[in-house]
Design brief:
Residues 374-384 have a biased composition (Acidic residues). The protein is 33% helix and 27% strand. It is elongated. By secondary structure, the chain is an alpha+beta fold. The longest helix has 30 residues, at 102-131. The chain starts with a helix and ends in a 17-residue tail after the last strand. The protein has a five-stranded mixed β-barrel. Strands 1, 2, 3 and 4 form a four-stranded mixed β-sheet that branches. Strands 10-11-12 form a three-stranded mixed β-sheet, with helices on both faces.
Length: 390
């Protein structure tokens, strides 16, 4: 073995973090296989490599027996005594059988083994790096596309963005930079395989963590997310700090923070509502920007009936039912929306006040510009615009 190879193994240990001893063991095992294959030998052999002086020997290992049945694997006690009188039955004798031209084969084999082990080690390190980044956001560069998948370069690895994880309204071109959400990392025979998404709700969560310091620091918490990627999303936020406005923190000055996230998601509209453990309040908030007159809850069926002003019915339901659908996903409650006129005809609105406590408010409040309105107060004439600039 040449000193150049030893120096190379030492350098790899420092650069790649692969132990030189591990590489030497792998080379020895590969040389045994190469010896048997190239010299048509079925002997029990081992390769002895001296890393200090760079020497290499092929040693045949034979069992000491009284009567030899296979000369390739056994040696008689008499012949063993010619080598060393101390040998006894059952001992193992080693004889050097290094072929004259074995150096060339050894060099080729060592190169192959080192290359393979380096590749495996690099794959292992890449896998370890990205498996720890599952459910995290990363920056990537679009490298190529095929009929179903988009391939995004993340630096050390090429990630797969499946068709179902792509935003339909987006156009992807090679060399474009995009942010993606790592959904899964798998170990395969070809190395680590990373799968990413542009539609996962986790992408929206991570974008808010990057854009809103209060969320990143844990002052404001994102409770739930409902998303129809590329079109519209709703998130519910909460804070235990009385002096912090959770919605205002996410929206930012003149809507700068939420607008930045919307731009990253190709103009996706984002509704931000305040979370509440009270389903009456939470459902009313979730149907924003629609005003709500009353929320009637059925705990057993986990469903709600929501009464809205007549002129707000289409806004509450949304285009193709989107607003109501997202609100239901956000809250986890079924939502049946009825106009005030229909609710009055059905006799479910307004509800009668309880006889034992006539002061109790029978309907839920609704919110407008930070003020709480009861059922007996006049509705604002204009629809609520959460993102209206001051």
């Amino acid at each position: 073995m040449s000193s150049d190879l030893l120096d190379a193994l030492t350098a790899l240990e420092k650069q790649k973090g692969i132990s030189r001893d591990v590489l030497l063991e792998a080379i020895e095992a590969a040389l045994v296989t190469a010896y048997k294959r190239n010299f048509n030998q079925a002997q029990n052999v081992r390769v002895d490599m001296n890393s200090d002086i760079g020497s290499m020997k092929v040693l045949a290992r034979k069992d000491v027996v009284e009567e030899v049945e296979d000369e390739r694997l056994q040696i008689s006690l008499e012949d063993a005594h010619h080598i060393n009188p101390a040998y006894e039955i059952g001992d193992i004798v080693e004889e050097e059988v290094t072929p004259k031209d074995f150096g060339r084969i050894a060099a080729q084999t060592a190169k192959q083994v080192v290359t393979q082990r380096v590749r495996e080690a690099e794959r292992g390190m890449i896998y370890d790096e990205y498996v720890d980044r599952e459910e995290d956001i990363v920056n990537g560069i679009i490298e190529r596309t095929d009929a179903r998948n988009l391939y995004v370069g993340l630096g050390k690895v090429e990630a797969v963005l499946p068709l179902g994880e792509q935003i339909q309204a987006e156009t992807y071109k090679p060399h474009d930079r995009i942010k993606v959400f790592i959904t899964k990392v798998e170990r395969t025979s070809r190395g680590p395989q990373v799968f990413v998404s542009r539609t996962h709700p986790g992408l929206l969560r991570r974008l808010f963590e990057l854009e809103v310091p209060e969320i990143y620091e844990g002052i404001v918490e994102i409770k739930t997310i409902a998303r129809e990627a590329g079109d519209r999303s709703k998130i519910s936020v909460y804070t235990s700090h009385e002096d912090v406005d959770p919605i205002g923190s996410c929206v930012g000055a003149r809507g700068a923070r939420v607008q930045s996230i919307s731009t990253e998601l190709n103009g996706e509209k984002i509704d931000i509502v305040e979370w509440s453990e009270d389903p009456v309040v939470f459902v009313a908030n979730a149907l924003s920007p629609s005003q709500v007159l009353d929320v009637q809850v059925n705990e057993e069926e986990r469903s709600t009936t929501v009464i809205v002003p007549d002129y707000q019915l289409s806004l509450a339901i949304g285009k193709r039912g989107q607003n109501a659908r997202l609100a239901a996903k956000l809250t986890g409650w079924k939502i049946d929306i009825k106009s005030e006129e229909d609710a009055r005809e059905l006799g479910i609105y307004p509800r009668e006040l309880p006889e034992d406590d006539p002061e109790e408010v029978a309907t839920s409040p609704y919110y407008h510009d930070g003020e709480i309105y009861g059922n007996d107060e006049e509705l604002p004439e204009e629809p609520i615009d959460l993102y209206k600039e001051d």
